Amino acid sequence: MEEANQSVVSEFIFLGLCDSWDLQAFLLVAFSSLYLITILGNVFIVLLVIADLHLHSPMYFLLANLSFSDLCFSSVTTPKLITDFLKENKTISFRGCMCQMFFGHFFGGGEMVLLVMMAYDRYVAICKPLHYSSIMNTKMCIQLVTTSWIIGFVHSISQLAIITQLPFCGPRKLDSFFCDIPLVIKLVCMDTYILEVLTNANSGVLATICFILLLISYSYILLTVCHQSKGGASKALSTCTAHITVVMLFFGPCIFIYLCPLSITWVDKFLAVFYGIITPLLNPVIYTLRNKEIRNAIKRL
Predict the structure, then answer these.
(1) What whole-number distance in Å separates Cα of residue 170 and Cα of residue 115?
(2) The predicted structure's pLDDT at residue 7
(3) Distance between CA 121 and CA 62 in Å, rounded?
(4) Residue 286, H or E segment
(5) Residues in CB range of 34: below 8 A, 6 or more apart
């Protein structure tokens, strides 16, 4: 027993979403369908923005990058979740677990910053329309997107660099369907209280700062919209409503998971499913249904 406790963990075991095979069969079909729609929807938006010259503007350049980010983010955990429904023993290698955590936080952190960049784009367009073309030029757009990816990378690698150096010697069961830092760090063979606080603060602070910046940006935008003409205000408000909806859906579960002191397993699992599977699906739906220019571009196909 003592020797087993000192052995190095080479894989982790997922307990999954549920134990019922009937429910797992239903979830297999449901999540496979949702994932397929997510992939097709986000790929469609990226290709539409590239192909339609009317959409070659900063807002749609950022939207295409958001769809690409959603495409990648949903692919970090969902394929593994779907295939695990077919298995009795749901395992993942140590390296596979580390990769899930890295890419999950890389794409997730990058998307948070990208949403802030999209809010900045709307701020310039609505609050400084005369300077929009000079401020939001091609160089600025590329810099904004590059900044979001760099922040996402730094956020992710800074946490993973610590995690990979910690001793994992058992237990190796994760009461979830994917690897995430708050779950994995509990399996470390040492006192992890300070590490848990630091890693949760890392993700929580990034999410909170981005969320506050978004609230400030959209509050300022809405105040400006109130003083515009009725037609211009209506169009601006429609665009901002779609952005705000995406922001609430993305940041709500994230902030709850990393900043809430309580840990309720079924709630965490539900939020993880919503955050990792439902939100990447809703983004293209929200932007497609609420955006007149996207709908017109689809009609031109």
Answers:
(1) 39
(2) 44
(3) 9
(4) helix 279-290
(5) 277, 278, 281
- CA atoms lying within 13 Å on the CB side of residue 285: 11
d(CA 279, CA 285): 10
Predicted confidence at residue 228, as pLDDT, reads 64
What is the band of 99 on the pLDDT scale with cuts at 50, 70, 90? very high
Nearest to 202 by CA among 172, 162, 174: 162
Cross-sheet strand order for the sheet of 11-14: 91-93, 11-14, 173-174
Upstream peptide bond of 129 is cis (omega within 30 degrees of 0) = no
Residue-wise DSSP of 142-154: HHHHHHHHHHHHH
- Residue 17 or residue 58, greater confidence: 58
pLDDT greater than 80 at residue 15: yes
Q: In the numeric block, which tokens belong to residue 2?
A: 């003592």
